[in-house]
Please model this.
Amino acid sequence: MKGEKILIAVLLIATVLCWGATPIIEKIGLTKVSPIVGVTIRSITITVILVVVTILTGDIKDIINTDVKSISLFSLSGILAGLLGMWTYYQILKTGATSKIVPLAATYPLVTAMLSILILGEAITLPRIIGTVLIVGGIYLVK
Model:
């Protein structure tokens, strides 16, 4: 159990460091290319790496056996987040202040919380209400 907690902490720190450094790299990269070119290069690189890893791990058979509904849902997710979300994010990142854009873009959990209540029927709880108020307050402070 202790080893699992340490692993979770290490992975969380790695995630935060990767996600925290990435906007700086992207902002610098966007000085010489358009946002759509940036998204395209990013997506091609990720796709090549994922195909190689999926083949090497033997998980390619799981892709072949995936049902149409799951493929459709992941495809829609990719279009919304990987294409449209990244493209619009790169558009504003190219011209705006990174220190303001990144925190504002990171308010997406507010949308997730609202949609999870409306679509998934998740409960409205006091911690969620407090969290929503804090997110809205954070948006106000960053602007």
Observations:
- The CA atoms of residues 87 and 105 lie 12 Å apart.
- The chain is about 85% helix and 0% strand.
- The first helix runs from residue 2 to 29.
- The mean pLDDT is 92.
